[in-house]
Amino acid sequence: MAKGIKILTEHINTPGIETFEVYKKSGGYAAVEKVIKKMTPEEVVEEVKKSGVRGRGGAGFPMGMKWSFLAKPEGVPRYLVCNADESEPGTFKDHFLMKSIPHLLIEGMIVSSFALGAHKSFIYVRGELMYVIRILEKAIEEAKAAGYLGKNILGSGYDLELVVQPGGGAYICGEETALLESLEGKRGNPRNKPPFPAVKGLYQSPTVVNNVESIANTPWIINNGGDAYAALGIGRSTGTKLISASGHIKNPGVYEIELGLPVEEFLYSDEFLGGIRDGHHLKAVVAGGSSVPILPANLFLKTANGEDRLMSYESLSDGGFASGTMLGSGGFIAMDETTCIVRNTWNFSRFYHHESCGQCSPCREGTGWMEKVLHRIEHGHGNMRDIDLLVDVAKKIEGNTICPLGDAAAWPVASAIRHFRDEFEWHVKYPKEATMKGAVYVKEEVLV
Amino acid sequence: MDTPQLIKVTIDGQEVHVPVGTTIMEAARQIGPDVAPPAMCYYKPLKGSGGKCRACLVKVSQGSEKDPRPMPKLVASCITGAQDGMVVENFTSPEVVEARKGVVEFLLLNHPLDCPVCDQAGECHLQDFAFENGVGTTRYEEERRTFEPENLGDNIQLHMNRCVLCYRCVYTADQITDKRVHGVMYRGDHAEISTYINNVIENDFSGNVIDVCPVGALTDKTYRFKSRVWFSKPVDAHRDCDKCCGKVNLWYKGDEVIRVTARKNQWGEVEDFICNSCRFDSKKTADWVIEGPTKVKRASVISANKYPKNEIKKPAFALDYAAHNFKKINDDRPYYKNLKEVKGSEDYKALMEQNAEFFPKETSKK
Ligand SMILES: Cc1cc2nc3c(=O)[nH]c(=O)nc-3n(C[C@H](O)[C@H](O)[C@H](O)COP(=O)(O)O)c2cc1C
Predict the structure, then answer these.
(1) Predicted local confidence at residue B350, as pLDDT
(2) Is the pLDDT of residue A83 over 70?
(3) In the prediction, which pLDDT does B366 show?
(4) Distance (Å) from the C-alpha of residue A326 to the closest C-alpha of chain B?
(5) Which of A19, B81, B189, B346 has the fewest C-beta atoms under 10 angstroms from its C-beta?
(6) List of chain A residues whose C-beta atoms are within 8 Å of the C-beta of residue B145
(7) A137-148 tens-digit pLDDT
(8) Between B54, B79, B165, which is nearest A400 by CB?
(9) Which CATH architecture has domain B143-225?
């Protein structure tokens, strides 16, 4: 397969691609025609299974497998819900995709809903993105007018209604069960699992929740076949992935990469990030959005065994949490030597403290505690005990909460101390220096 | 067949057979209090409760007979279904004990620890939970979170600072009162139980939120500061009530009924919810038919002062322990013998006079 293949962003620069006409002219809605006229829902699920595409919302769960778990009791409606709540610091790919090429998501929603036998599907969009919601609603109107949505789609007898629902602007509502609660009009608290959404989801009916990017992949998979998709990428990381890159790099932005791209190439080639800004060195990377463990530059480029790291689920997590991280949602944040890791960790912590729903005690109390201790260390009032305290608090949150927000809050703190402990100690030992404006502790060995 | 299908669960080495669909918590409770995990939010009578406080985390070291793999994380026993052949470690797992210590610490983090002025002290689940599962010190140096006081009316006192956000009162209001006007506002550690635009909680069964509250966040305003619970005597009583079962506990101080509550089982759960007329408006002995003293757990502080001295038997093991570990003091030592002599001596008197300022004069007791 050609290098640099684009599945999601091929037509993204075509003028007018946000309109139905231009999208259709560029080959859009072919997948809808194909599934509706020539395929059974089971065949669609089979193709998606074959593609090996994994959920792009963070956890990386195989999408086809999730679909095949969907319970199908008689006489109960099934729902597809698209998770467009994207609120993870560092991740902004879904936003970009929806505003640039809204019909791709709409087409994916139709294909996926058909596969799952859903007649009413939802796109739950982060509340701050009002303008994107309008774009999507316009696209839905256009698709409806053209007969691709609504009653009796393309004369097949298949009905589908698409609803765009704005969220209230809460990160926690990106967690799938909190999202469902919110969609039902309740407070966005994650549910206890089991039951999983596949059995009891929206309105207690079987439901699939998928990320925007996951769903946007389905038209290509239908048009080209699951095998063609599976041929892309590396190992169990099939296909392409959108990476939203930010931080101290020359070309920040959203990139579609084929999974398996060497990290070094992604970071330094002009086609992608173009390297670290001039005169600076890479210090640390958060590879998949603020929730994943931070890695020092040297460990990011090479695994603990000295192998080159690749942009794939497996390679990034090589070494476990001791020396690896996760691909997560693809929020790539590069930090050069001017970045204070303590301050950055405090800032992440502040976010999780603010966003915890407050339902279960470890997360509710622990996130606030970690933030306060980090605030103290960052502002020159820490002591050595505090560093181990943070590690212990993170450990007591991790794995003990209702939803993974607890883990997401614990990992950045635990990993920052794991890899940058001397920087925390420096803050404690030399509070005066550490709190001077612009002062940063740098250890040469980790820079690249 | 009438007999329901039973599955075998092993908890802390003890086997129990329970019907399919039983949670680990309920299975453990069947074995008894020694293996039952603590619960701060789970409340059997309230549908949907549980999973939040994480006090009842246990380790599943064998998933089931069919699939013996252990569960990767600790699970909340109150919401996790037992499987046939499941092996659960509760108090026997160091991992669980450690995690639970963490939960105690988290729950106490922002708790004001104002037990000395709290009406719940003595029947507080957080006190018990912390005493039995926590450590004696805190590592929290930050300022504790506080809330603005809010008035819920004449009957119910809300002390939000003490709340552990178990959501029991919310479920209670949802499930047994006809109008819920309170719920959880805000999120994270600023989440609070509150009413929408300063409503008063007012309906026939609202008082039950007091009984379900595991801490002193919701207390009976008509009983506020009247007594410590261990100075009052609970009595089982009933009356004909057209709204509720009318079965209650009356709490006496002397001849006066100072409080009426619903009856609770050994897990601290209400047996039958009662109405506000019984709870707040029927505080005369004449209103009730007395059944007899309420059974109080021997370990409970409520039982203090309620047993005649000659009936209290020290457990044999404690005497053995003491005999084993402590030497008897030999009172023949010269110091004790001479104490009187010394106190009477001139030297001693002079010394006391010199340092009089440090020894306030003994006031004669009446
Ligand atoms: C706190 C939290 C926030 C999340 N936010 C998002 C989000 O904004 N968008 C998203 O797609 N998935 C998010 N997820 C993951 C979802 O729970 C879910 O796994 C995902 O939507 C499934 O879709 P996928 O299988 O296509 O990835 C979040 C998870 C957690 C725990």
Answers:
(1) 86
(2) yes
(3) 42
(4) 19
(5) B346
(6) 368
(7) 999 999 999 999
(8) B54
(9) 2-Layer Sandwich (3.30)
CB contact under 8 A, A368 and B145: yes
Contact across the interface for A400 and B102, Cβ inside 8 Å: yes
What are the residue ranges of CATH 1.20.1440.230 in chain A? 341-446
The closest residue, in CA terms, to atom 23 on ligand 1 is A210
What's A242-336's CATH class? alpha beta
Q: What is the pLDDT of residue A447?
A: 84
Domain with CATH 3.10.20.600 in chain A: 242-336
B24 contact A CB<8A: no
* Arithmetic mean of pLDDT over chain B: 90
pTM given for the model: 0.90
Residues of A in contact with B184 (CB under 8 A): 187, 358
B71: nearest CA partner in chain A = A399
Superfamily of structural domain A20-230: NADH-ubiquinone oxidoreductase 51kDa subunit (3.40.50.11540)
pLDDT over threshold 80, residue B197: no
8 Å CB contact between A165 and A123? yes
Rg of chain A's alpha carbons, rounded to an integer? 22
pLDDT at B340 over 80: no
Hey, what's the torsion of the CAs at B15, B21, B23, B27, to 10 degrees? -30
Q: Can you say whether the dihedral through the CA atoms of B335, B336, B342, B343 is positive or negative? A: positive
The domain ranges of chain B are 6-103, 143-225, 227-313, 327-366
**Nearest C-alpha to atom 17 of ligand 1 is from which residue?**
A175
The amino acid present at B73, given as its one-letter code, is K
% residues pLDDT > 90 (chain B): 72
Are B139 and A389 inside 8 Å of each other by CB? Answer: yes
Mean pLDDT of A189-216: 97
Q: What's the topology of domain B6-103?
A: Ubiquitin-like (UB roll) (3.10.20)
Contact B53 A361 (CB under 8 A): yes
Q: What is the CATH T-level fold of the domain A341-446, as seen in this structure?
A: de novo design (two linked rop proteins) (1.20.1440)
Q: What is the mean pLDDT of chain A?
A: 96
Q: Please give the angle made by the CA atoms of A244, A401 and B111, to the nearest 5 degrees.
A: 115
Q: Which of A330-334, A357-361, B173-177, B282-286 has the lowest mean pLDDT?
A: B173-177
Q: How far is CA A232 from CA A2, A9, A177, in A?
A: 9, 15, 31
Q: Where are the beta strands (DSSP E) in A177-281?
A: 207-211, 233-234, 237-238, 240-247, 253-258, 261-262
CATH 3.40.50.11540 in chain A, residues? Answer: 20-230
Q: Is 50 exceeded by the pLDDT of residue A1?
A: no
Query: Is A234 in contact with A240 (CB distance < 8 Å)?
Result: no
**What was the ipTM of the complex prediction?**
0.93
Q: State how far the Cα of B165 lies from the Cα of B217, in Å rounded to an integer.
A: 10
- The closest CB to that of A361, out of B73, B103, B139, belongs to B103
Angle at A326 between CA A323 and CA A329, to 5 degrees: 160
